Amino acid sequence: MSGDGERPRRSFTADRGDDRERLDRVLLRHLADLPEASRTKVQEWIEAGLVLVNGRPVTKTAAKVAAGDAVDTVLPPPPPPKPELIPQEIPLSILFEDDHLLVLDKPPGLVVHPAVGHRDGTLVNALLFHSKDWAGEADRPGLVHRLDKDTSGVLVVAKTEAAHSGMAKAMKARTLVKEYLAVVYGRTAVAKGKVDLKILRDPHDRKRMTTSKTEGRESTTLYERLAESTGERAGLSLLLCTLVTGRTHQIRVHLKAIQHPIVGDATYGSPRWKGIADAALQAACRDFPRQALHARRLAFDHPVTRARVDTIAPIPSDIAALLEAAGLSAPA
Hints:
Blueprint: E1 9-13, E2 21-22, H1 23-30, H2 39-47, E3 51-53, E4 56-57, E5 64-65, E6 70-74, E7 94-97, E8 101-106, H3 123-130, E9 142-143, E10 152-158, H4 161-173, E11 177-185, E12 192-196, E13 198-202, E14 205-212, E15 220-228, E16 236-243, H5 250-257, H6 279-286, E17 293-301, E18 308-312, H7 317-326
Parallel strand pairs: 10-17
Antiparallel strand pairs: 1-6, 2-5, 3-4, 3-6, 7-8, 8-10, 9-10, 11-16, 11-17, 12-15, 13-14, 15-16, 17-18
């Protein structure tokens, strides 16, 4: 514990409410005024030897505390401030805009939120630049929902708190119509179907999601087979997927679960292109640089004006080329 003399400390005497309780729970109770004192953080502090009980370090989070124990916590230094986001002049494809909302057609490959390794060049950086001329009440644009980096299509941004709140309520009530186009391997057993499987984090890979009939969050995807490739080019289908719920990676993981992974999906796909007879189409599928998933349509009642907003994002050139190679017709 040497070298901690200048760091802030919190000391207290355990009372009757703490008697025979776990140390991490006791600390959570007494440090409830500290925003950073989550259960995970408190457990990290204990395991790092930053907590003394009656003058001695205790490193077991489940250690029992007795009434009258003197608990002394050396608080870790606050995290460094996050770098300020920089507005950047990045072109935006706007489908709809008024004083309250902005509906965009996000290109594939554009990261939505800044993160480690992507502090600039993101959609948020572009929105900060675009929003400098807004006259609304919001200081910063508020994303209503997200798309994966490699998913293209319709994305909504709120310009005001009222618009953001109204859109959030509509999403919770599931009144938004959200349609996606997906180019998948195989031919679905039915022309129209529903995937009704729960979604949860993959316990073996925290970056992936998986499905379960019993565990996770309720998730439902409707799908319709719009077209299928035939002859030498057989092996692909174009699906129209409608989200009933909106979970992380929902369409991608649901289609994988029914054995129709999306072409180009490195996380949930498989090298099914090897079974396609046509060499040109096989190469197009093998080399497709992202998941062939496009958020085509978003329709909703405007949260402020109550007018109906119905936006369609044109099919991007890479998916259009893939459909042409497969002989598949896309909806107008």
